[in-house]
Design goal:
The protein is of the alpha+beta class. It has two domains: about 80 residues; about 80 residues, no CATH class. The strands form four sheets. The protein has a four-stranded antiparallel β-sheet with strand order 1-2-3-4, with no helix packed on it. The longest helix has 17 residues. The model has no long low-confidence stretch (mean pLDDT about 85).
């Protein structure tokens, strides 16, 4: 009898934990006292709806979701589930306005090339090429946060493409404008 009572108490104690809904909101505060909330795909600044995403595919539990400030500019990074790879949506937050500024491959934001400025980005997954002697050239895109701006880090992008693909192609799309050109496999 006592064992049944203990068992019932344990079941009732765990039910609320099982019924919790997944996290669907994020809260940030900038040094300018902007209260930024992301709730079900909508971005609010100081309680005002400022941006609506087409679909709520934000990975709310991701540690990559963050607010980053550089030289007085405020940037919001959201980790979003993509069709093949996760993506990083980047927004500029100015006063009560939010502007989408770029989309990159999801990655940690850190000083990847040891130049004193944080980078993020990477390369997308591509399917294997059907012949064993060649591969699809997979382009990379790395961005750098520097002097209050986010720009393509062309030098680091080229360096990584040479490391990964063995060659750098400034025009990586095929003749039809699709990804990606075929290159011989390096040995």
């Amino acid at each position: 009898m006592r064992l049944r009572l203990v068992h019932c108490l344990l079941v009732f104690m765990t039910l609320p934990a099982l019924a919790q809904t997944p996290k669907q909101e994020l809260h940030f505060k900038s040094s300018k006292n902007q209260l930024i909330t992301v709730y079900k795909g909508t971005i609010f600044v100081n309680g005002n709806r400022t941006y609506q995403m087409q679909a709520d595919s934000i990975i709310y539990k991701s540690r990559r979701n963050r607010l980053l400030e550089d030289k007085g500019n405020v940037f919001l990074f959201l980790d979003v589930k993509g069709s093949t790879d996760n993506e990083m949506y980047v927004f500029a937050v100015n006063n009560s306005q939010v502007d989408s500024i770029l989309t990159a491959i999801s990655s940690n934001i850190r000083d990847m090339d040891h130049d004193g400025f944080p980078e993020f980005g990477g390369r997308a997954s591509t399917p294997a090429y059907p012949a064993a002697d060649s591969v699809y050239y997979t382009p990379s895109r790395y961005y750098e946060i520097k002097k209050g701006r986010i720009e393509l880090d062309a030098a680091y992008t080229e360096k990584m493409e040479k490391r990964i693909n063995g060659v750098y192609l400034p025009e990586p799309l095929d003749g039809n404008g699709r990804c990606c050109k075929v290159i011989p496999k390096r040995s």
